[in-house]
UniProtKB/TrEMBL annotation:
This is Uncharacterized protein LOC108847830. InterPro entries: DUF1985 (IPR015410). It holds the Pfam family DUF1985. Signal peptide: none annotated. Residues 64-199 form the DUF1985 domain. Residues 253-262 have a biased composition (Acidic residues). PANTHER family: DUF1985 DOMAIN-CONTAINING PROTEIN (PTHR48449), UBIQUITIN-LIKE PROTEASE FAMILY PROFILE DOMAIN-CONTAINING PROTEIN (PTHR48449:SF2). Transmembrane segments: none annotated. Residues 271-281 have a biased composition (Polar residues). Residues 253-281 are annotated as: Disordered. It comes from Raphanus sativus.
Amino acid sequence: MFAAGEEPLGERINSYHRTRRTEMLIKALEPEELDFLRQSTFGKILDIYENPPFSGAFGQYIIVRLLKVNKKYEIWILFAGTPVRMSLREFAIVTGLNCDKIPEPPLKKKNLLNEKLYWNELFGSLKSCTVDTVIDMLKKKIVKDRDTRIKFACLAITSSILFPSSHNPGIIREHVEMIRDLNEFLAYPWGRASYLTLITYIVSKDEIALSQSSVAIRGYVEALQLVMIAAVPQLKEEITHNWPVVIVEADSDGETPDEAEPPTELICSAPINNRRPTSSA
């Protein structure tokens, strides 16, 4: 999108997800409840201690190095002269989430107006409820039933990690109605839904938006960093929460993803600083 050396020097990518909130959720759960979630589709994204915290400065560094591609739900990032792909496949690898096709919504029932909303069963008269309130209810054991506590935790995960829309996210009402059946809720392809949210926001940003000092992107933004760490493992030692990453880029011949040989695996097959994309021409 930008000529080499002319990338905007912004400050950060603004992620609405806060690792501290996830830590609080983990601490609020009983050991057997946490074990249950770690065995579920959400298990990998709860392993927050396995990766460095998200660096907004590094996020900004890679987002302004997007390549223009034709595919609607795929992005390529030029890193040290080599294109790195992020598609649904890479997202599934780094998050461990279910990325199957999203099922067709069920037909609306004629007596829907007479059906009691599940929101009222879980949250009573509350018209809205923040994720922080749910975590506090779990911590203080205001909610004691095991299944209900797990449902609260799942709703906190989808609302604050996979689909955050503010720094103080609220529980998403549509997800509350979906969690009537916990097994069906956990089997839902949350990975694909989250990826579509993230990738849609990324590709919607034009050169003007990316030139701002701070760029807000909804969805599980941390996946960008996880993909880069998987492709370049050395980055794990360099990325910190407070300091930007200083990276010296190798010279590039200017190949585009359409001309370069697409990677068959997420991990690069050779050290990235010594490798150029192979032209198919």
